């Protein structure tokens, strides 16, 4: 099956710093999402981005499907950005099977 | 506010109990999912229903029994669980076109098996 690798696994930032999270995948995909899981466990949709670039406030994401990676940018980080960031992908022939990467655990210090 | 609602938020059960987790969505989606998430791990797919029919079962033990009574509801019936089944159970929904659409998750049901 498709492999999804996220880096770095852990990240500690000072409030106000910028960061880039990476997601590599091993096969072509037709669906790529970035999620933020808050400390209470809820998965919050950040971006649905099979290709191209999107921005939402301090967050932006870029997926280069031909090179099989996606990047999530967090600018001017805040303590509320802490949590786990997951990349999840689905293959064109994968039916409804969406596979998650292992996640990047982010802690933003005040 | 999430448009996928899960109940209960927390559940504690013994190994001989029978309980159910419930999920409801009002987004008009025709694909619904159950994921299981252990601590410090990513969510793992358990079941997928497409147009109220089971389309994916990821070799889940029979002590977990899914049910999709209509296009808005998804249940997960639990019976004779083991302590290692303690986890966060997440429900999700998406459009059910040719390919997987954007997934939307509920807040999860945190299950503890004693």
What does this structure look like?
With 110 residues, chain A is mainly β. Chain A has strands at 4-7, 10-14, 19-25, 31-37, 43-48, 52-56, 59-64, 69-74, 83-90, 98-100, 104-109. Chain A contains no helices and 11 strands. Chain A starts with a strand and ends with a strand. The relative contact order of chain A is 0.34. Chain B is mainly β. In chain B, 0% of the residues lie in helices and 56% in strands. Chain B has strands at residues 4-7, 10-13, 18-25, 31-37, 44-50, 53-57, 64-70, 73-79, 87-94, 104-105, 109-113. In chain B, the strands form 2 sheets. In chain B, strands 2, 4, 5, 6, 9, 10 and 11 form a 7-stranded mixed sheet that branches. A 4-stranded antiparallel sheet of chain B has the order 1-3-8-7, with no helix packed on it. Chain A binds chain B through residues 30-31, 33, 35, 40-43, 45, 48, 86, 88, 90, 92, 94-103, and chain B through 2, 31, 33, 37, 41-45, 48, 50, 55-56, 88, 90, 94, 96, 99-108, 110.
Features:
heterodimer; A: 110 residues; mainly beta; 6-stranded mixed sheet; globular; B: mainly beta; 7-stranded mixed sheet; 11 strands; 56% strand
- Tell me the major beta sheet of chain B: 7 strands, mixed
Q: Indicate the low-confidence ranges of chain B by residue numbers.
A: none
| Largest contact between chains | A-B, 24 and 28 residues
User: What is the 3D form of chain A?
Assistant: globular
The tally of helices of chain B reads 0
Number of strand elements of chain B? 11
- Give the terminus-to-terminus CA distance of chain A: 40 Å
Which strand-content bin applies to the residues of chain B?
over 45%
Per DSSP E runs of 2 or more residues, the count of β-strands of chain A stands at 11
* SS content category of chain A: mainly beta
Helix content of chain B: under 10%
- Give the C-alpha Rg of chain A: 13 Å
What's the average pLDDT of chain B? 93
Name the helix and strand elements of chain A from N-terminus to C-terminus, one letter apiece. Answer: EEEEEEEEEEE
End-to-end gap of chain B: 32 Å
Structural class of chain B: mainly beta
Which ranges of chain A are low-confidence, i.e. pLDDT below 50, for 5 or more consecutive residues? Answer: none
The major β-sheet of chain A equals: 6 strands, mixed
Q: Total helix count of chain A?
A: 0
From the structure provided, what is the oligomeric state, counting identical versus distinct chains? heterodimer
Following the backbone from N to C, one meets helices and strands of chain B in this order, namely EEEEEEEEEEE
């Amino acid at each position: 099956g498709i492999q999804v690798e996220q880096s770095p696994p852990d990240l500690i930032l000072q409030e106000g710093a910028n960061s880039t999270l990476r997601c590599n995948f091993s096969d072509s995909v037709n669906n790529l999402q970035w999620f933020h899981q808050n400390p209470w466990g809820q998965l919050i949709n950040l971006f649905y981005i099979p290709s191209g670039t999107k921005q939402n406030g301090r967050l932006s994401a870029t997926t280069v499907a031909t090179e099989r990676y996606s990047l999530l940018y967090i600018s001017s980080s805040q303590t509320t950005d802490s949590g786990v960031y997951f990349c999840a992908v689905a293959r064109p022939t994968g039916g409804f099977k969406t596979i998650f990467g292992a996640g990047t655990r982010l802690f933003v210090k005040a | 506010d999430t448009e996928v609602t899960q109940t209960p938020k927390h559940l504690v059960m013994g190994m001989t109990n029978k309980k159910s987790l419930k999920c409801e969505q009002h987004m008009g989606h025709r694909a619904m999912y159950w994921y299981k998430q252990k601590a410090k791990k990513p969510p793992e797919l358990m079941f997928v229903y497409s147009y109220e029919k089971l389309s994916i079962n990821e070799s889940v033990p029979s002590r977990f029994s899914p049910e999709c009574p209509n296009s808005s509801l998804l249940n997960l019936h639990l019976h004779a669980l083991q302590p290692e089944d303690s986890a966060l159970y997440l429900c999700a929904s998406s459009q059910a076109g040719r390919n997987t659409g954007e997934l939307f998750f509920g807040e999860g049901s945190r299950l503890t098996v004693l």
